[in-house]
Amino acid sequence: MTTRDFSLRYAGDRTGFLLVHGLGGTPAELRLVVRALHRAGRTVHCPQLAGHCGTEADLVATGWRDWANSVLAELERMRETCERVIVGGLSMGAVLALHAAAERPDAVDGLALYAPTLRYDGWSIPRYAFLLKWLINTPAGRRYSFIEREPYGIKDPRVRNIILNAMTSGDSAEAGLHRTPSRAVQQMWQLITDTRRRLSSITCPALLVHARDDDVAGLSNAFEIQRRLGGLVDAVILDDSYHLVTIDQQHHILIERSLALAARLEISARRHRRAAPMRAVAAQ
Q1: 3-state class of 35 per DSSP?
Q2: Helix-strand-coil percent breakdown of the chain, rounded to 5?
Q3: Half-sphere exposure of 61 (CA within 13 A, CB side)
Q4: Dist CA 193 CA 241 (whole Å)
Q5: pLDDT in tens, 33-62
Q6: Whole-angstrom Cα distance, residue 186 to residue 171?
Q7: I need a surface site. Which of 25, 207, 222, 250 has the fewest CB within 10 A?
Q8: What are the start-end ranges of the H helices in the chain?
Q9: Nearest residue to 114 via CA among 251, 280, 263, 224
Q10: What is the pTM of this model?
């Protein structure tokens, strides 16, 4: 089992970001965003999900509830020092952020959803991939693994080569697993099913960043979430990135809009505090 903890945690002000990596991924895929948000003064945590940053066996020994509990435990940790917490993530990490908001609406003040993935329907996904849902419980289906394909979610060729080299080196803590076991994908589907039916109950403000040419999860994923969420959604469609928007060519836009969300929440909190005494006087 995985013994090292590759979580990223930086202390800052009373507004915190809890960012969650994707399935088979690693906190490193959010490192650029984490560091930029911290340089702006924010508290930022990116925990290592249960079963991740190790082997395929480590991953399949856990399930979606274990991953969700990793997020909820980190949320509790952050609420001890932060006045407000924005929960976000990349790909499946964005779905886990949505799940946390549904589970703990009192503790999640905003959402930062980066390339949220409800289904693998991007242009690089093989057309036969949909068959796995019917074959998952057969011997062949249980042995199947999704293998990362060109362009590996990255449009920038320089960054793509760096990630590919790390991925094929066997260092899963730096670039994630090169192969995702079907049993782990099945657990992700169960997470999505549970979260999808609860989207309308999520009313906190949300930032949604998705690439128009996402190679893994098509733009329809973002449109569905935008349509079904119960609160304000600020949708940003990137025109020069693929799936890994946190490290691709326009990650600076994602960072700017994330900081803008934090600033809006702070302004809203100040207005609420100023209005409270006036409401009390009016009530008397």
Answers
A1: helix
A2: 50, 15, 35
A3: 12
A4: 27
A5: 999 999 999 999 999 999 999 999 999 999
A6: 24
A7: 250
A8: 31-39, 56-60, 64-79, 92-103, 132-135, 139-143, 157-168, 172-175, 182-196, 219-228, 251-283
A9: 251
A10: 0.90
